[in-house]
Amino acid sequence: MKFNQPASSIFVPDGLDAEAALGRTTHLAIVGHQDDTEILAIDGILASFQQRYQWFTSVIVTDGRGSPRSGTYTTYTDDDMRAVRTKEQMSAAMIGEYAAQVFLDYPSSQIKSPNDLLAEDLISIIRKTQPEVLYTHNLADKHDTHVAVSLRVIEALRRMPHIERPQKLYGSEVWRDLDWLIDEDKITFDCSSHESLQLKLLGAFESQISGGKRYDLATMGRRKAHATYAASHQTDVQTGSAFAMDLTPLIKDDSLDIDFFVESFINRFKEDVQSRLYKLMQKQDTR
Ligand SMILES: [Zn+2]
């Protein structure tokens, strides 16, 4: 399979032919950077781990050249960083036994507006993998590249016939949690199983962690915090949870405005906060 960037590549951990490897995919993640997959698509990785009929594929859109660096990596050039981050992502794909790991290798500056070459690449991957579930960044993330990837994924899907689109499109957490979503809007992924596997996956990205950013501990901590703080009056059912925004309506109805759709989540959050305050202030007034 050939993609539009000259240095794009596909890594298949178990050595199967690339076409066949992609063809077995049931759960697909399309993300901005190396390590975003392990943070946001843990649901798909766990659902497919050691399963005969479920397979997870990860797609990294950008080239990793602009990655932050410190300590051992301070003197690394952009090309060195790209090589290190690619190697780390391949190692995560081995640990998580992914069906395939795709590197599309776009400079992040090139994906911040609609890009036909990227759309073509995404369409050919989605067509080849035919995933049931597709994970990407949520539209309220605070990293421009993340939101751009999510928009490019939605645009690509909207160019495809409905029959070829996944049943579910989820926007999950990296830079900004989704615990602010009202409970009815929250998609909750149970991350209680394979805790040591989750840690190993996050720990594969030494170049990002070694500078003192403990993404591994922070992500595991967030999963634990979500599980505990999900409901105030019940004991914990899950020991780890991750949240997502259900973006499926945007690929069921192409006329649904993306701004309006995201704003509706924010409005429901606003109403929830306001109505509680109003109720409790009313009570005080009528003492
Ligand atoms: Zn990222």
Name of the CATH homologous superfamily: LmbE-like
Q: How far from one another are the termini?
A: 71 Å
Biggest sheet, spatial arrangement of strands = 1-4-3-2-5-6-8-7
Under CATH at level 1, the class stands as Alpha Beta
Radius of gyration: 20 Å
| Portion in beta strands | 5-15%
At CATH level 2, the architecture is 3-Layer(aba) Sandwich
Structural class comes to: alpha/beta
Bound molecules: zinc ion
Mind summarizing the main beta sheet? 8 strands, mixed
Mean pLDDT: 94
Q: Quick one: overall form? A: globular
The helicity comes to: 40-55%
The tally of helices reads 11
Question: What name is given to the CATH topology?
Answer: Rossmann fold
Write down how many β-strands occur, each being a DSSP E stretch of 2 or more residues: 8
Order of helices and strands: EHEHHEHEHEHEEHHHEHH
Overall domain count: 1
Low-confidence stretches: none
What is this structure's SSE topology?
Layout: E1 9-11, H1 18-23, E2 27-31, H2 36-40, H3 42-48, E3 56-62, H4 78-95, E4 100-106, H5 116-129, E5 133-137, H6 144-158, E6 168-172, E7 186-190, H7 195-203, H8 206-209, H9 215-229, E8 241-246, H10 248-252, H11 258-285
Parallel strand pairs: 2-3, 2-5, 3-4, 5-6
Antiparallel strand pairs: 1-4, 6-8, 7-8
Helix pairs in contact: 4-7, 5-6, 7-9
The protein binds zinc ion (ZN).
Residues 32-33, 36, 143, 146, 174 line the site of zinc ion.
Structure, described:
- It is a single chain.
- The chain has helices at residues 18-23, 36-40, 42-48, 78-95, 116-129, 144-158, 195-203, 206-209, 215-229, 248-252, 258-285, and strands spanning 9-11, 27-31, 56-62, 100-106, 133-137, 168-172, 186-190, 241-246.
- Helix content is 44%, strand content 15%.
- It has a single domain, classed as Rossmann fold, CATH 3.40.50.
- The protein contains 11 helices and 8 strands.
- Strands 1-4-3-2-5-6-8-7 form an 8-stranded mixed sheet, sandwiched between helices.
- The chain has 287 residues and is α/β, with parallel strands linked by helices.
- The model has no long low-confidence stretch (mean pLDDT 94).
- α4 links the parallel β3 and β4.
- The longest helix has 28 residues, at 258-285.
- Residues 32-33, 36, 143, 146, 174 line the site of zinc ion.
